[in-house]
Amino acid sequence: MDIAEGTPALHGFRMPAEWEPHSQTWLGWPERPDNWRDNGVYGQSIFAKVASAISKFEPVTVCASASQWANARDQLPHNVRVAEMSMNDSWFRDSGPTFVVSEGKSSSGHNVAGIDWNFNSWGGVDDGCYIDWSHDLLVARKILSMERIPRFPQSIILEGGSIHVDGEGTCLTTEECLLNKNRNPHLTKEQIEDELKAYLGVKKIIWLPRGLFGDDDTNGHIDNMCCFVKPGVVLLSWTDEESDPHYERAVEAFTVLSNSTDANGRKFEIIKLHIPGPLYMTDEEAAGFIQVGEAKPRLPGTRLAASYVNFYIVNGGIIAPQFGDPKWDDEAVRVLSKAFPDRQVVKIDGAREIVLGGGNIHCITQQQPAGPQA
Question: Which Pfam families match (predicted)?
Answer without folding.
Answer: PAD_porph
